[in-house]
Design a protein that fits this description.
Elements lengths: L1 H16 L4 E7 L6 E8 L2 E9 L5 E6 L6 E8 L2 E7 L4 E6 L22
Parallel strand pairs: 1-7
Antiparallel strand pairs: 1-4, 2-3, 2-5, 5-6
């Protein structure tokens, strides 16, 4: 009987920790085949958290095994090409931007990953 409770607790803990990751699919046509960075703001500074190489269509996925701290983040190509966005509790989403202006940024409500050949 004690073994059943231990197994049940293990299954519950595994279920809680499963899915505790981030996956941010990015489509930036203006940065096709270039490396971009995911950076975060902290105490007035900007720090790089992750980087990816976009495919020839400008598509890639930032992903990690644990959740990111919620807050203000930046997609960064260079000093002239970057934009800010917020990351909350839901950290599996897609974002689309034809340029590096926050005004053109689109974040659909549903997670719809595209077929990526390089991922």
């Amino acid at each position: 009987m004690k073994t059943k409770y231990i197994v049940l607790v293990f299954i519950l803990i595994s279920g809680i920790s499963w899915g505790q990751n981030y996956a941010i699919q990015v489509e930036l046509k203006g940065a096709a085949a270039k490396e971009i960075k995911l950076a975060y703001h902290f105490t007035g500074n900007v720090f790089v958290k992750d980087s990816i190489l976009l495919d020839s269509k400008g598509i890639g996925i930032f992903k990690g095994d644990s959740l990111l701290p919620q807050g203000l983040y930046k997609i960064f190509l260079d000093e002239k090409n970057h934009f800010d966005f917020l990351i909350g509790a839901d950290q599996q989403f897609s974002l689309y931007n034809d340029s590096f202006s926050s005004e053109n940024l689109k974040i659909p409500l549903l997670w719809k990953p595209k077929n990526l050949s390089n991922t």
